[in-house]
Amino acid sequence: GVPSEPVIAKPQAMPARRGSAIPVLLHVYDVSLDSGIQQLNSLLAHRCSPIKLGGVFHAGVEVAGQEFSYGYCPCGSGIRTTKPRQHPCHHFRETCYLQRTSLDWPGVLRIVEEMSQQYLGNDYHLLRRNCCTFANDLCLRLGVGEIPEWVHRFARLGDRLMGASEGLGDLKWSLASVGPSSTLGADFQDATEAADVGASVSAPCRAPVDGA
């Protein structure tokens, strides 16, 4: 089964900052504590490399000393808070410094509270609704732009491949319903079966849970 995120205390109230924008940081982790994933991410997205291809990542957004992230849980909101760079289930990799938000702390909390009703724990999906999906959405609502593309590149690619595969399956089923006498249906079945063989060879491995 899919492991649950630990239940972590809700964010503490903080005084509003007057006359200054609040920094927003994106903390990127290697998914889980597995050393193999850490080595893979180091190869594909080394901290010191100016070009990062992607990897299997967890992401959390820090605002005013609170790190917000999203993960699976069987009930309730999937949004949790941790101390910055200290998520207990993942290995910290690096920090991306984003823009500052013009919102004050109560404004930030209003956004997180609203999102907590939209990001339920049992709605979590490895590719389509994951920690990076949440991090990107939160950053957009804070007005600081999107997270770096390399952080969730592999998850988005996997989502597109899954969508294409599902569409192909639906089309095969539709043509199969025409019947074996249909020359078009038979030709298409032969072609798609050949495509399936190629896809099974080149399809990437799935990432562990709560990564992107």
Q: How would you describe this protein?
A:
- It is built from 5 helices and 5 strands; from the N terminus they run βαββββαααα.
- The protein has helices at 35-44, 105-116, 131-142, 153-176, 183-202, and strands at 22-30, 57-63, 66-70, 79-82, 91-101.
- The longest helix has 24 residues, at 153-176.
- The model is unreliable at 181-185 and 195-209 (pLDDT under 50).
- Strands 4-3-2-1-5 form a 5-stranded antiparallel sheet.
- Helix 4 runs antiparallel to helix 5 (183-202).
- The chain is an alpha+beta fold.
Strand order of the largest sheet: 4-3-2-1-5
Helix percentage: 25-40%
H and E order: EHEEEEHHHH
Strand content: 15-25%
- Cα gyration radius (Å): 21 Å
The outline comes out as globular
The count of β-strands is 5
Distance between termini?
A: 18 Å
What low-confidence regions span 5 or more consecutive residues with pLDDT below 50?
Answer: 181-185, 195-209
Q: Structural class per helix/strand content?
A: alpha+beta
Number of helices: 5
Main β-sheet: number of strands, strand sense, barrel status? 5 strands, antiparallel
| Mean of pLDDT | 79
